[in-house]
Amino acid sequence: MNDTPPLDDFPTGPLIERGLARLRAASTDAAERLADAAFAAQVAKLIVASDFALETLCRQPALLAQLARDNAPAPLPAPVLEPQQPELWPAQLRRYRSAESTRLVWRDVHGLDDVDATLADATRLAEVCLQTALQALEGEFAQRHGVVRNTEGAPQRLVVFGLGKLGGGELNFSSDIDLVYAYPEGGQSDGARALAAEDYFARLGQRLAKLLDEPTVDGFCHRVDLRLRPFGNAGRVALSFAGMDQYFQREGRDWERYAWLKARAVAGDIEAGEQWLASLRPFVYRRYLDYTALDGLREMKAAIAAEVARRELADDIKRGPGGIREIEFLVQALQLIRGGREASLRERRLLPALQALVQAGQVTPADGQALAAAYRFLRRIENRLQMLRDAQTHMLPEDAGDRARIARALGYAGWPALEDSLQAQRARVSREFAELLAPRKRRIAADALSQYWRGLPEGSQAETLAAAGFADAAGADAALRDFARYSGVRGLSDAARARLDRVVPALLDAAAKSPHPDAALKRALALLQAILRRASYLALLDEQPSALARLVDVLARSALLAERLALYPLLLDELLDSRVAGPMPERRLMRQQCTAALQEEDPEAALRLLNECRLALSFRIALAALDQRQPPSDSTRQLAWLADEVVAAVLQMAHQDVAGAHGRVPGGRFAILGYGSLGGEELGFGSDLDLVFLYEADPQATSDGARPLEAGRWYARLAQKIVALLGAQTAAGRLYDVDVRLRPDGAKGLLVSSLASYTEYQRERAWTWEHQALVRARGVAGDAALLAAFDDTRERTLTQPRDPAKLREDVVKMRARMRSELDRSDAARLDLKQGEGGLVDLEFLLQYLVLRESAAVPALLAPRNTAALVRALRAAGILADEITEALLAAHSVFLAEGLACTLDRRPRLVGRTADVAAACAQVRLACGHFDLEPDPADSQTSG
């Protein structure tokens, strides 16, 4: 190509003159308009860029008048296909498409449209032609065969799906259109010459393709490709939705996921088509991170590369290296990997999909910008290649004159300058694409472990594991031999076994280098056994060494997270989420994700999705706690927020269920209160929820449904449903265990209390310890007015006058009793919660001070969590500065130690380290300062 003569050696003057002469000869009006030198110059640019546009103007010279009249010519009206003159339809469609296409060339050449607009207009043109042609043919078929009706007698229409660039709204200038035909359900037409639905819609589809595709003296309208339908050319021309479902369930292949990712209903019954496409989504987008998509991509790319080499297509800007197809594959592969989890990535259009990937952190902003620029550059050249003669080509021209015309029309000094720009863009695309598909590098250090693994279950020696760093090499060897003999391993496909043979040595290597090799290996084998049949997870660990390393690190340090990963492998996705290491999700995002689960119509599916949402968010919080990326108090607060949002979502589900069965209680209100660690926003991993239910309604009211209930029973049913939903077992586990014993009168009391009875109980019959519990109580979900009324009751209860001596006596006796019954401390270890100087001592101290002082200091009523209560007591002058700082530090130590215990599935019994001992001493000192230390006699007699 370097010997291409400069542009000046290919003068375009004669070309322009010949073209203008032909137009002047086409009509008197054209000749008059071209007498205007400025307009003639505009037409000259068109002539240089497109022989096709010149031919169209010579055939339809009236079109020149519109171009001359309108600076930015608008779309032409679609042709009207008269039922009485079907013989005219082909010419009408072809002339319309030629005229509209010429208008697109005009707008492109004169800079009136960018490439995005040109692609969108080319798509719109194809849709108009499809819809116009189909409507005419449907009328003809209705006269001849009647219409096909469903089982309820409603008429059915053909559904035309556009795949590829038509589906994505990015059709190039002279592209064929990839169509698939379908129809909602079987049946028979109701005309005199009845046809079965299958034959009716197949014939209709074939006629549609012929009307658009068949060459005539006027050329063609659109080339139609039906080969992407199920079973390709061997398959039926049109299938029912049920037939389509069956095909994709049994026969769907990886490349079809890429094809149907862009699918869109473009003609016929568009609404029915879009509804069916929604049901196809699980085939296209897997629920989990799906790195198996890369296998299909590698196979497709290899086939294309072989074709490029065989047919010498290096100059093909679509299929060649660094071409349009590589950008499309790159974007679509990332969409398929993550689109099942991130709805924002389920985008048919390439450029918006690329931007969504940037926003999701899967493509860097710089790479996204570069790929978008390359895509637009290549698509513009593709359009200009096709505009030249309306040919479906992607090959750079060999003819020097054609090269010169394209370069000149695109504003380059010559072909070499255009070629330099083109090569730079293609090189950038090739680099990005190669990076995505690059074979993953393996550590050489794993070679000995790889040989060890491949020798199992009969060969190999445990000494290899001992040399690698496993303390219990014999135990590890036995576990690995058992795993190698496991039926699930023996039954793997060749491809899955090849993945496993790469993954296991890498896991062994990473486990050996971890802080706890033996624990990491034991937990890793449990996880592998859980995911063996899930190709997407093996693919994730195989394709992403960073995920594997992160996994082993987590397994080594947290028994809780290892257990959750084995039970719910969907959490593996979180290890690769770019947001995991970033800021934790805000409460607003938690609410959005929990609410999104409720969009599922099936209650069981909605509950499962809600549980998956809770699992993923709590796992992310756990990772932050494990890595100490945030203070312990932040983690416990986020867990409480998450519980709030889950409870609110479950309330909505339960309310719909009870209302569906029994109607609603007119004027009734309902609210859920959180006590304990939920109320104090200090929830731990795996903590249960202390809930109390309130309602307010006319005592005589009944619900307005077909099976009415009086108000008390209605709200009791609602509360029962909430508890059942929170504890229901789903494929993603259960949401939360619920403890409702803190309600008025405890286990003997009603599950749900009216506001009046709750208020009366707190005022007249509640024990001091129940008022202590009220200090941390807060509303978490339900009617805002009722929650405000609860706050009023709480305020009146906490501020009522108290005898300080009697208050102290009650608090000390209750603390002594709890310590006697619940404290598991021994000489070496402290019970973080119940031990002397532990969390409960600190909580009792704060609750005692709030009950004693809040009548005089109302500001003490607002805070619920420990740290805020300590600071409020200091602000009120009740706690000295040095005691405040000591208590805050002690609380932080307790939270950190407690989280560490739960993350590693250990009881909350910790060694009496210097930090723990100091924290306990400060709490005991503060309790002693206020004379709250239980007397030994109290501890001995409290039981």
UniProtKB/TrEMBL annotation:
GO terms for cellular component: cytosol. Residues 298-437, 813-891 form the PII-uridylyltransferase/Glutamine-synthetase adenylyltransferase domain. Its EC number is 2.7.7.89, 2.7.7.42. GO terms for molecular function: [glutamate-ammonia-ligase] adenylyltransferase activity; [glutamine synthetase]-adenylyl-L-tyrosine phosphorylase activity; ATP binding; ligase activity; magnesium ion binding. Residues 445-943 are annotated as: Adenylyl transferase. Belongs to the GlnE family. This is Bifunctional glutamine synthetase adenylyltransferase/adenylyl-removing enzyme. It comes from Pseudoxanthomonas wuyuanensis. The lineage of its organism: Bacteria, Pseudomonadati, Pseudomonadota, Gammaproteobacteria, Lysobacterales.
